[in-house]
Amino acid sequence: MAASPSCISLVVLVALATVASAQLSPTFYSASCPGALAAIKSGVTAAVSSDPRMGASLLRLHFHDCFVQGCDASVLLSGNEQNAGPNAGPNAGPNAGPTRQ
Questions:
Q1: pLDDT for res 45
Q2: Residue span of the structural domain in which 84 resides
Q3: Could you read off the pLDDT of 62-100 as tens digits, one per residue?
Q4: Is residue 42 domain-resident?
Q5: Is 51 annotated as a binding residue?
Q6: Longest dimension (CA), the chain
Q7: How far apart are CA 83 and CA 64, in angstroms?
Q8: For residues 24 and 5, what is the distance between their CA atoms, to the nearest angstrom?
């Protein structure tokens, strides 16, 4: 049974609406943590000022954490957290290991 053009159009419209509403937002933390963006910016600016290679290092770190094998945010974990519970043993994710300095 062939689908009518209006049904196909409706499915495409719903799919596009879903994708459009799932975008990242720079104001995501504006209500729950209003100072987050300023704190992150000042911290990164200070780190890059003290070591010019830090910008490239952060970009590489987050690329490999998020895009290579999926975001698991393990760069945010300390060494104790990476080796605890579900992050240890055979179920360990790709970034389980020593704390990044």
A1: 93
A2: 52-94
A3: 777 777 666 666 666 666 655 555 555 555 555 555 544
A4: no
A5: no
A6: 66
A7: 19
A8: 32
